[in-house]
């Protein structure tokens, strides 16, 4: 049997989830603000403690709302930052898998190509892709298999924000290392950026190419 304390914690969780489910845009924005302020930097076990071992129930609501609203840009910055708290938490592999299983990578890549989305929101999308790529080789491969190199490179070429472009360089640098299956593809994407109209994109692409360690058998042609 669960203790009175555990029952109270579960009751708070269910009440929180019900508040989210019943909330409109403004109320959800407020909930996201509170979540970010309260949980930034927490580990996965700490998040589970905060949510009475039911943190995934909130994450699935965040990912569902992202998929439903990302084309409109509604609360996108806070929504992506909230998902980032889950994905970047120490020992968060379960959250990462849950996010990827619902097509999280494709959604993040599609955000990069939408003209109506703000640069700041696209930068948050790039940061989440960094977290995913840094989680291991199979996740880098997943991004590349999802035509990620093209989407990321196109955003780098078109972006008007140098800060966002520098975040893209960090991501491309991650994808070009420890990713032998798609290393050639990333190199070709970087080379394709060299004649683009953005001087900053040209500079960052060249820097990444110079620092990349090409594995045996990898060609740049």
How would you portray this structure in words?
72% of the residues lie in helices and 0% in strands. With 221 residues, the protein is mostly helical. The radius of gyration is 19 Å and the shape is elongated. The N and C termini lie far apart (65 Å). Pfam families: DUF5578. It comes from Diceros bicornis minor (South-central black rhinoceros). This is Armadillo like helical domain containing 1. InterPro entries: ARM-like (IPR011989), ARM-type_fold (IPR016024), DUF5578 (IPR041090).
Note the run of SSEs as H and E. HHHHHHHHHHHHH
The termini sit apart by: 65 Å
Report on the biggest sheet: none
Helix content: over 70%
Mean pLDDT: 93
Shape: elongated
Spans of at least 5 consecutive residues whose pLDDT stays below 50 are 215-221
Fraction of residues in β-strands:
under 5%
Count of alpha and pi helical runs: 13
Radius of gyration: 19 Å
Give the helix/strand class. mainly alpha
The total beta strand count reads 0
Pfam families: DUF5578
InterPro entries: ARM-like, ARM-type_fold, DUF5578
Protein name: Armadillo like helical domain containing 1
Give a brief description.
By secondary structure, this protein is mainly α. The protein has helices at residues 4-22, 25-39, 44-50, 55-69, 76-87, 93-101, 104-112, 119-133, 137-145, 148-158, 162-176, 183-193, 199-211.
Task: Please give a handful of descriptors for the protein shown.
mainly alpha; 221 residues; elongated
Write the layout of secondary structure elements.
Layout: H1 4-22, H2 25-39, H3 44-50, H4 55-69, H5 76-87, H6 93-101, H7 104-112, H8 119-133, H9 137-145, H10 148-158, H11 162-176, H12 183-193, H13 199-211
Helix pairs in contact: 2-5, 4-5, 5-8, 7-8, 7-10, 8-11, 10-11, 10-12, 11-13, 12-13
């Amino acid at each position: 049997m669960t203790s009175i304390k555990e029952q109270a914690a579960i009751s708070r969780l269910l009440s929180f989830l019900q508040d989210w489910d019943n909330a409109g845009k403004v109320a959800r924005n407020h909930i996201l603000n509170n979540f970010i302020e309260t949980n930034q930097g927490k580990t996965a076990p700490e998040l589970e403690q905060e949510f009475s071992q039911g943190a995934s129930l909130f994450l699935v609501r965040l990912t569902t709302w992202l998929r439903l609203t990302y084309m409109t840009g509604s609360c996108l910055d806070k929504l992506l930052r909230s998902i980032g708290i889950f994905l970047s938490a120490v020992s968060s592999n379960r959250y990462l898998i849950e996010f990827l299983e619902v097509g999280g990578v494709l959604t993040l890549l599609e955000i990069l190509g939408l003209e109506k989305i703000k640069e700041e929101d696209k930068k948050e999308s790039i940061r989440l892709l960094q977290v995913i790529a840094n989680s291991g080789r199979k996740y880098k491969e997943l991004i590349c298999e999802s035509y990620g190199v093209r989407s990321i490179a196109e955003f780098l070429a078109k972006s008007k924000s140098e800060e966002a472009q520098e975040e893209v360089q960090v991501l491309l640098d991650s994808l070009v290392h420890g990713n032998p299956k798609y290393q050639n593809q990333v190199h070709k994407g970087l080379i394709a950026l060299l004649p683009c109209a953005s001087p900053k994109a040209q500079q960052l692409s060249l820097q990444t190419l110079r620092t990349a360690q090409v594995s045996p058998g990898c060609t740049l042609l």
